[in-house]
Amino acid sequence: MLPSIPPGMRSLCRLWYTGFLKILSLRYSYVKGFLMGRTKTYEHFCAMARTLEVVGEKWTLLVVRDLMRGPQRFSDLLHYVGGITPKWLTARLRDLESEGIIERDSELGRREVWYRLTAKGRDLRPVLESLLVWGVEHAMKPPVPGEPVYPEVVLQGTSIYMNHRAFRLPRPVTWEFQTEGNPHVQLHFDGERWSSRNADADASKADLTIATTPVDLVSFLNARRRERPALLKTLSIDGPAKARDLFLTSMVGTTAQTA
């Protein structure tokens, strides 16, 4: 027969057990928050700190980047935000939705859910554009072997940087970049600003098509102007002579399409 536990000892054990459960609960909450990437707090008053608490977690701004191109499905975001898992993406989308930065567009009878930026989310555009410009000027490096390169993302950044540098042409143009296995993407200048868009059924007719690989596209765009003539052999440019000459003189500085 087991000896009885004195009442005082029983109360002490109950108190210890309750405290132990509280510690376990706190540690579980911390670990869960850590695993879901929601541990970023700065514990002081600052508007920048508050902003980073909302959008400073890993992948969050990249989700916003892709939604800047227009509404996207979950599968689209999973494709473009490299390295993210469905679990992480679900968490990020929930966070952004709870903050009023994105909204879901779902219709009865339609299986797919589309995500789009709200007005609050669109207000992040100048922030992301400034980050991209800083990256081009201070952090750019070639893709590492095996790293995915998406022409949609590359040309989105190109249009932002060309607007930043006030790069202008004498007339509106639409250049269509074609890379195998990827959507065709158009770089469009409307006479004032550059933009990028997928070459779908609603897109404008291209003045010029440029066929290349994603990596060669990045190499060409990142090269200095004086280095680009040697890279022309990696591009297949097709279009009227006048449109081809405008592309070459503005992007390369020559009308010759050979190195």
Plain-language structure description:
The chain is built from ten helices and eight strands. With 259 residues, it is α+β, with helices and mostly antiparallel strands. The chain folds into two domains: 47-126, Winged helix-like DNA-binding domain superfamily/Winged helix DNA-binding domain (Arc Repressor Mutant, subunit A, Orthogonal Bundle); 141-251, SCP2 sterol-binding domain (Nonspecific Lipid-transfer Protein, Chain A), CATH 3.30.1050.10. Strands 6-5-4-7-8 form a five-stranded mixed sheet. A three-stranded antiparallel sheet has the order 1-3-2. Strand 2 and strand 3 (114-117) form a beta hairpin. Helix 7 (125-138) crosses helix 8 (151-164). The chain is elongated. It starts with 6 loop residues before the first helix and ends in an 8-residue tail after the last helix. The model is unreliable at 26-36 (pLDDT under 50).
Average pLDDT, rounded to a whole number, is 87
The low-confidence parts are: 26-36
Biggest sheet architecture: 5 strands, mixed
Helix count? 10
Number of strands: 8
Can you write the helix and strand succession as a string?
A: HHHEHHEEHHHEEEEHEH
Compute the separation of the termini in Å: 96 Å
Classified in CATH, the superfamily of the largest domain is: SCP2 sterol-binding domain
What is the total domain count? 2
- Arrangement of strands in the largest sheet: 6-5-4-7-8
Structural class comes to: alpha+beta
